[in-house]
Amino acid sequence: MLPFIPFDILYSASGKRTVLVADDEIINREILGVILGSEYDLLFAQDGQAAFDLLQENRDTLSLVLLDLNMPRMTGQELLRRKKADPLLQSIPVIVLTTDQEAEVESLRLGAIDFIPKPYPKPDVILARVQRTIELSEDRHLIRATEYDHLTGLYNREYFYSYAEQIDLHHKGTDMDAMVIDVNHFHLINERCGKAWGDGLLQRIAARLRAAVRAQGGIVCRRGADTFLVYCPHREDYEAVLAAASRGLTGAEDAAAFRVRLRMGVYSRVDKALEMERRFDRAKLAADTVRNNYSRSIAMYDDALHQSELYAAQLTDDFYEAIAQNQFLVYYQPKFDVRGDTPLLSSAEALVRWQHPKLGLISPGKFIPLFEENGMISALNHYVWRAAAAQIRDWKERFGIVVPVSVNVSRTDTLNDQLPDIISGIVEEFGVAPGDYMLEITESAYTDDSDHIIATVKALRARGFRIEMDDFGTGYSSLAMLSKLPLDVIKLDMTFVRNAYGETRDVRMLELILGIAGHLGVPVVAEGVETAEQAEGLKALGCEIIQGFYFSRPLPPDQFDRLIAERVRVHSEAPSVFGKKSAPAPFF
Ligand code: C2E
Ligand code: CA
Ligand code: CA
Asked: What is the CATH number of domain 7-147?
């Protein structure tokens, strides 16, 4: 690691820089003391060992060492040798004081920057050399500080890109590879093992990566928290590079050790016409395809990825026009209350689709993750939230009953302090009661930034909105945490239903969750219910609300009308189920 010394601490409290004078002859120390004393704060050592001790003690504040070579206990040469070997001392400049020309050469080799011959030249010559040496070394620091990443000593991003361009310039005929190496679950590692451990981990990865690619002329930088970039002449042994970087990376949480896993994306034989940064975007894209993948940790940027990149670029380009032209359609998937003998329509989830003029009807799985990444999701969600509120009102006007609707809220929305105001504004505009408007927030958002989200959710509930924790079981919250989180409904992730009624038919997990939720008094919505067996089984286990293809796929509003008409018919035939006419349907 390269030491970085911030500038302000190069000055002592008196505002002067500090210089160490190491000479065993008292007369020499006195002469230098007189010459330098008014300009610098001075430390004196009368032998080599004392000088080395002072050097170590004052390594953060020393601007210069004036070093006699012939001293008892440790020679000046030996001190230079030790200093050179210690990365924390390396960058402190040394001027050698000597009578011996031979020794001058050797001391330069050992890292001394300049020398002052004995007997001493005129005072202003000495002052000038001291001053110049300090200036030069501080300039070098300044350059280093802007070239290197403080934590790892690797190149920083800007410098790395321009260095990579230099490499291209000088090796036009050489095929080059761009690699991106990321740490899986780095934020969790930081949380579990502490930031200091996380920093140490990054330093170890940095050192190993550098060692792994340096021999072939590769360069490395750290971009962002846990992302490393490598630019190196084309090679095939990517496994070896990743293995070298991953060697022995284990963390310990309490007594349980766990393995830190890296992932790597490679854009091999880069197209040199492409901007440097874009080459690494490609490698990063590949790396993200194996994010948290336990069977594969290396991915190559290939044609399929290239196509999906082009597709994503087109969707991004077309987004604002699509919003302006109402190309986004909101479908509604019903949720059925299964507590009684006949399942009853109880509410709906708003799910967006994109009717693209050239690409046809696009499902949200294709564009939601993309927009969540590039920040466009907020605009899209806002559009959907308004559409859902308008829909509730439209149904109410035409059928006389309120069908509550839930909308999806993204992680970024929850970070926006204006969220409660925004959503309140929408429901007020369409005359919808907050209690008929539900917000689905994915479980992983709760665990990512729990304090913030808890505050936001509390504010929303205080205004009467109901919160459903979406995709429950895919995040990291424990059942014990549930009782502390502000929420109204749990939406079980589909994988639970799938696993419970899959080949093994093991419903114990479902039973457990429904049992605890029942105990806490939190209603559960089961998602992804596709068969009668699943629906019956869930009902038997105490699940109250079911959403899934078994009842209906997400429908365009006009088709959803039929479900409402049916619900109104059941209502008028069996008013007892409903209570007062035109009162909202009972929920949860
Ligand atoms: P989600 O919020 O978990 O929504 C449920 C997804 O499960 C929907 O997929 C729905 O069509 C699907 N689904 C429902 N029942 C079944 C079933 O029985 N079997 C199977 N296989 N699938 C079922 P969809 O509509 O493709 O939406 C996918 C995801 O996109 C949603 O997952 C949600 O995360 C996101 N999404 C959709 N609309 C919006 C939106 O307006 N805003 C945001 N932020 N995200 C949205
Ligand atoms: Ca949802
Ligand atoms: Ca879900």
From this structure: 3.40.50.2300
